[in-house]
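Q: Here's a chain of 209 amino acids. Please give me its 3D structure as C-alpha cells.
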Amino acid sequence: MRTITKEDARLFWDKELTAVAVDEGVTFIPENAFRDYHNLNKVVLPQSVTEIGDCAFAGCNYLEDINIPEGVTHIGAKAFEGCNSLENITIPKSVTKIEKETFKKCCGFESITIPEGVTSIGEGAFWWCEYLKEIHLPKSITKVGKDAFCGCYNLEKIFIGDEVLMFEQKDSIMSVGVPDNVRVEFDGNPFLGCTSLGFDMNFFNVVKH
C-alpha cells in the first residue's frame, strides 16, 4: 500500500496503484487526484481530511473500499462518478449537501442513507445507480435536484425519516406523498425512469399527508 504524505498530496501519482493510504495531516484531496486510476481497489483517508475535490475518484471502476472521515464537510461534484465496484459508502454527518453527479453511475449501490443535516441533493447525484433499491432521506432535506435518481430502475422504496414516500399515478400525473412536517422541493423530475416504483414518472405533484 502506498502512503501519500502531506508534502506530495497535490501531485499526480502512479496510476498502477492498487491501494493508497493518505497520511495524517492531509486536509484536502484535490480535484482529479485519483481520476481514472483503474487499478485502485482500496483507499484509506485520515481523520484530518475535511474536503474531497471534484472528480477526485471519478472513474475508479475497481474501487471497493474507501472511508470518508467524520469531519469531511464537502464532497465535490462527480467525486465518485463511475465507481461501479463500490457497494456502499458512509456519508458523514458533517456533510450538508450532496453535489451534482457525486455518485453518478455507482452501480454497486443497493441502499443509500443520506444523514440528518443534509439539506440538498444535487442534479444527477445518483444518476443511473441501476441496482439501488432503497434510499433513506433525512427530515432535514429541503431540495432534491433534477434527475437526482434518474435511471435507478430497481428503486423500490424511498424513505424520509421513518416514513415511506407514497406514489400514486392518475391520468399520467403522479403524486408524491410527503410527510407534513417535511418542506422539500423537487426540481424537475428527480425520479425519471424509476420504473420499479410502479410507473415511469414524467410529471408529478407533491401532496402532504
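Q: Can you summarize the key feature?
A: Residues 153 and 195 are 5 Å apart (CA to CA).
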